[in-house]
Amino acid sequence: MTRTRQAFAQADAADFLQALPDPVLLIGPDGDAELNAAAQALLGPPGHASTWTALFSPAAAPQLHAAVDAAGRGEQSQLRLSLPSRTLPALVTVTPAGAGGALLHLRLPEETPEVAQSLLDDLGLGVVVQDRETRILDANAAALEILGLSLDELTGRTSVDPRWQTLTAEGEPFRPEDRPVMRALQTGEAQRDVLYRVFNPDRGDCRWLNVTALPRWTAGQAQPDQVLSVLRDVTERHRLLQRLQDSEARFRTLVQATSQMVWTAAPDGEFRAPQPNWQAFTGQTEQEYAHQGWLDAIHPEDRAGTLAAWTAAVAQAGMYTTLHRIRRADGAYVPMQARAVPVCHADGSVREWIGTHTDVSAVQAAEAQLRASNASLEQRVAKRTREMAEATRFSSLLLNAAGEGIFGLTLQGRAAFANPAAARSLGYGVERLIGADLHDLIHHHHESGEPHPKHECPIYLTLRDGETRRVEADTFWHADGRAIPVSYVVTPTRDHAGQITGAVTMFRDVTERRRAEEQLEHTLRELRRSNQDLSRFASIASHDLQEPLRTIGNYADLLSRRYQGQLDDRADRYLAFLREAVTRMQSLIQDLLHFSRLGRDDQPHETVTLDALMEQVQSNVRASLESTGGRLTWETPHAVLGRPSLLLQLLTNLVSNALKFHQEGQPPVVTVRSEGTGRTVHVTVRDNGIGISSEYHERIFDIFQRLHGRAEYEGNGIGLAIGRKIAEYHGGTLRVESSSGQGSTFHLTLPAAPESPAPTPRETA
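Structure tokens predicted for histidine kinase (765 residues):
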């Protein structure tokens, strides 16, 4: 083992450094390097290179050697270095490691905020964040460089701080209320490209700044609570502009020597003689172009616009530019670009005008061709831009409007984004969540209080293996320390090459659902107990009720047999009524007992073919078919899962009712059909009977409900109630579709068996 490896192994923080997710290198005094796992994954093992500096780009070697030497002297330094496998430079912090060694820590700009900050710094754009009182909260490196202050010096300063010496572009003191930050806060509108100067007394210089202030809102706030200012140092550009203005007079001679038609004019806009270029091109003499005679060389259609533009430029002492056609000496009109600028004295008054005319015939032809060739491209770009803007807007609206909490994670487990619902559920602001290690913040313990290691966390497992995971019961922790029962789905995100870049987690607070489940379980326990009590009561009641009924019935039979015909007719009728009442009461008790016991056994369901059931139904109702002259047909090729005896009772009851409630003088016709709909079989029982009014469609399924007297139609009014209970016991439904006098159709759904035989239509009369 080398001395470096020994030093690394004996270091107090060696195990910690090996476990760090960021790349770390330990450089020994002899120049050997020890890399932790993250560094080897990024740079490769040190044995693959002649020296450890070869793991970086060749240009970085001198900087690295200098930083390591400085660390040997006890100094710390930071470098931005390009890595062979990375697009953006890494931030390398070099610190002393004892015994003349150095510790290199690499910070990779993988997170979106870091990438943006790095780009802004590289572009030289300063970014400053200020609160509602204009206090500075944060600033990037470029802003610190532009303002010449450290972050500690800037933090807490306001826009009205007297230490700022701010001037307008004209050199006047910049009033605080007119500064872009204050205007953005007051109006809620972006203030763009505001130019002013800031004097730094520490550096003793004055900088020209171009500032754009962008207000930012917190969701639900009417006024902005932050301002994001983008600073651009334009000092050099202004200095260059000043130099250009100072040297304008020196370039006059050069302009006149060009191949363009160059001319001069007096401060009041009158042509000065001589104008050799103008005279040679147009053929006008000095007398002809004097005063406003030069307008005669302009095309008649262009004269009014030319004169108006020239008059306005002279009046405002501003730049003159226009397009018009000038008559050449041979009589042809040539399209030309006219430009003129005023040359001013030190006091700002115009000394003279210098102008040029440039033949733009070729330029106009090229521009026309370019416009024609780019028309379709511009349309496609505009369309694509609109589509992308709409997609971005929709994604933002969808994320903000989602009721579930949603947050995105980097590969390191830090939050890249979080929607408002996530912030509300967890009790943190969105700003607090972004950038935080979410496992340490909200997922650190189980509900029991037992620690929850990261390597067991389903979210971190997805970050490692890229598998989508759904967790129905877990615990997040609220900002106030209470546990939140949640269910969530974690899905990996990948780049165009298919590599895992992070994960998105969508979660839901299931506190109310858990309470509802507990209440439902309690209710089910009470219901099962109640059903058991009801079953025992029904059994006891039926036995206790039937025993005296049997006694009454037996004695009624004895009286009828012994005294039949010996008493008057009224007594015979009373005995018949008594026997009929006993029979009906026994039937009611049996139906009630059957109704109460229905569905409370644990017998397994089996495959039942509907055709076989209908054969038995036909046998059961044969007497009714013969007595009414009715006809029963069925087309039921499907098979269902259920109890054959119960299903036979249900279908027999439906067909028997259809035969019973037929219209006077019209033979009943009953048709039974089945249709398969995925996992369900839909059975219809249709008749041509008396029908049922819509207000009774639900009432007929209530126990002991009759729509007709027993003198018209016999029965106890419990058959359809039992039928619906049988359907529900099988996980199906039973309903009616009917109108008075138009027949009825009963719709029955049952669970389908795995396979169904081929159709076999049947008919019987």
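Residues 511-563 form the longest helix (53 residues).
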